[in-house]
Amino acid sequence: MTVPLIDPFARAISYLRVSVTDRCDFRCAYCMTEHMTFLPKAELLSLEELERLCSAFIRMGVQKLRITGGEPLVRKGIMTFFEAMGRQLGAGLQELTVTTNGSQLRKYAGDLAACGVKRINVSLDTLDDAKFAQITRWGRLAQVLDGIAAAKEAGLRV
Questions:
Q1: Which of the 8 DSSP states describes residue 52?
Q2: How far apart are the first and last CA of the chain?
Q3: What predicted TM-score, i.e. pTM, was given to this entire model?
Q4: How far apart are alpha carbons 61 and 13 in whole angstroms?
């Protein structure tokens, strides 16, 4: 382990949130305009760069890693990153978690569990279908609820 991370109050930093993309498949009224201008892909860290960065933080004492976005599960090839971080579990990393809008969970829940993710946080503004559609503009509540069910089926704590 290298020199540990310490905050200005002399506390060890053991938890890190990493945004892997600014993109999202919803356009929540409080978060994005309906027609967003995203960062050029060339300006985002590659998945390999993110892996190296997170590995360096783990060597410095980060034990819990939360992957966020935008919506992290819309990032192309994202499971290769989760697989790499999953290999760090037990070798410094104690917990790998995800914050998601839930839209892609049906597709990825089993793979996330296989990578060592044990729990996820689903950002969900309402269980009212009409309000959900109004808030997210493009989102479908049924898809998110199905994704949550898939996560539970995969053994993930939600």
A1: H
A2: 32
A3: 0.90
A4: 7
